[in-house]
Design a protein that fits this description.
Radius of gyration of chain A: 13 Å
Number of strands of chain B: 11
Order of helices and strands of chain B: EEEEEEEEEEE
Distance between the termini of chain B: 41 Å
Structural class of chain A: mainly beta
Oligomer: heterodimer
Largest sheet of chain A: 7 strands, mixed
Number of helices of chain A: 0
Largest interface: A-B, 23 and 26 residues
Strand content of chain A: over 45%
Strand content of chain B: over 45%
Chain lengths: 112, 112
């Protein structure tokens, strides 16, 4: 069966520090991968999605970036965190168009 | 770009009352999906609607997709405390078949 792993679960980082969140999917090949951010426990904002290795589509211009070095690995990064980067970051995958999204457990990031 | 509006933002009901949340898209959708997020958790897929005018039921939950494929609703009959959470609609299509645009969600609380 397919599983998605996302870590860490919680993270407290100072302003200006770098960030690296990792997500891996098991049990499927060539998944579509997504990074969403949820602020204040409400709406889900699409940050990045990827339909293949090295292919990244950015939805929101900001100080975050994403990479997909391997088929089932998706990484969210920042060189310098801002206070406004605090939130709940969710990685998700699906097999393709018109299929359900499967979310990881998320990372709660607090920038202090 | 594609926008998905969802109302109401909050709904508080007495246990046993009905509940409805509505979703409207600025563009015609290829499909619409519904998710539930329990407090502190991650969104979990409930159902997908694809056909114009489609109606699907899951026990006390009824999902509808509008004839023009631009709106959808979720109705819960006789709410229970286990229904507590945030319900999201997510629209697919509208220019990119890989993107899934989420509404801001409706937070449902149930008074026992």
């Amino acid at each position: 069966s397919q599983t998605i792993h996302q870590w860490p679960a919680t993270l407290v980082q100072p302003v200006g520090s770098p960030l690296s969140l990792e997500c891996t999917v098991e049990g499927t090949s060539n998944p579509n991968l997504y990074w969403y951010r949820q602020a204040a426990g409400r709406g889900l904002q699409l940050l990045f999605y990827s339909v293949g290795i090295g292919q990244i589509s950015s939805e929101v211009p900001q100080n975050l970036s994403a990479s997909r070095p391997q088929d089932r690995q998706f990484i969210l990064s920042s060189k310098k965190l801002l206070l406004s980067d605090s939130g709940f970051y969710l990685c998700a995958w699906r097999t393709g168009q018109n299929s359900p999204l499967h979310f990881g457990n998320g990372t709660r990031l607090t920038v202090t | 770009g594609q926008q998905v509006m969802q109302i109401p933002q909050y709904q508080h009901v007495q246990e046993g009352e009905d509940f409805t949340t509505y979703c409207n898209s600025s563009t015609t959708l290829s499909n619409i999906q519904w998710y539930k997020q329990r407090p502190g958790g991650h969104p979990v897929f409930l159902i997908q609607l694809v056909k114009s005018g489609e109606v699907k039921k899951q026990k006390r939950l009824t999902f509808q997709f509008g004839e023009a494929k631009k709106n959808s609703s979720l109705h819960i009959t006789a709410t229970q405390t286990t229904d507590v959470g945030t319900y999201f609609c997510a629209g697919g299509g509208g220019g990119s078949n890989y993107k899934l645009t989420f509404g801001k969600g409706t937070l449902l609380t149930v008074n026992p």
